[in-house]
Amino acid sequence: MTLQQKSLHLPQSQADAQSVRQCLKQIDIDIHNILCVLQLSIIDPLTKEKIQQLSELSMCALYCCIVASVAYIYGTAQSSTPKVSTSSSSQTQAAKENAESDLHEEVSRSVVNQSLEIFKSVAEIFKKFAQSNVHQNRICMGTWMLLAGIQGALSASN
After folding, report:
1. How far apart are CA 138 and CA 148, in angstroms?
2. How does pLDDT run across 65-101, given as a tens digit for each residue?
3. Which of 70, 72, 139, 157 has the fewest other C-beta atoms within 10 Å?
4. What tens digit of pLDDT does each residue of 44-65 get?
5. Which residues fall within 8 angstroms of residue 115, CB to CB, at 6 or more apart?
């Protein structure tokens, strides 16, 4: 996957997914802040540069959505491996890992939902304030990115 001649990398291993999972809470906070800013009303006209920035913002949001999803797939694959142990400390450790997994699942879900909301908000801005071809091109770019992300997720789920 590429955007503006730069490669977009998805997690390719559980180690990559773990590093993404460690950053998800901060990503969630950043995406929430961006979503709040997009809720503000637009005063300035949309120039070519602003259209490009908003397009990049929505593509980056979709990228975060895809990366969080693929990292979650690797995380569930890791947590589904059977572990045989019956000691009390291992049961406590398993309960702690389950709680951590639930937290990561909730944050991943939040990142995905808010990222899609950013994409939707930018679409509404373009519908109101830009030419129709700008909106249609952005929808095509978003569709391409999501399809490429689904391919990556499918390869990760194997």
Report:
1. 15
2. 999 988 888 877 665 555 555 566 666 766 666 777 7
3. 157
4. 888 889 999 999 999 999 999 9
5. 31, 61, 62, 64, 65, 68
- pLDDT tens, 75-84? 776 655 555 5
DSSP 4: T
Task: Check: CB of residue 17 under 8 Å from CB of residue 75.
Answer: yes
> For residues 15-39, b (16+ Cβ closer than 10 Å) or e, as one string?
ebbeebbeebeebbeebeebbeebe
**Residue 21 token pair:** 């999972």
- pLDDT tens, position by position, 20-30: 888 999 999 99
Rounded to 10°, the helix 88-129/132-157 angle is 160
Report the C-alpha gap between 2 and 126 in whole angstroms: 23
Q: What DSSP letter does each residue of 40-72 carry, written as one string?
A: SPP-S---HHHHHHHHHHHHHHHHHHHHHHHHH
Q: Which residues in the chain belong to E strands, given as ranges?
A: 2-3, 6-7
Q: For residue 6, give the 3-state DSSP assignment.
A: strand
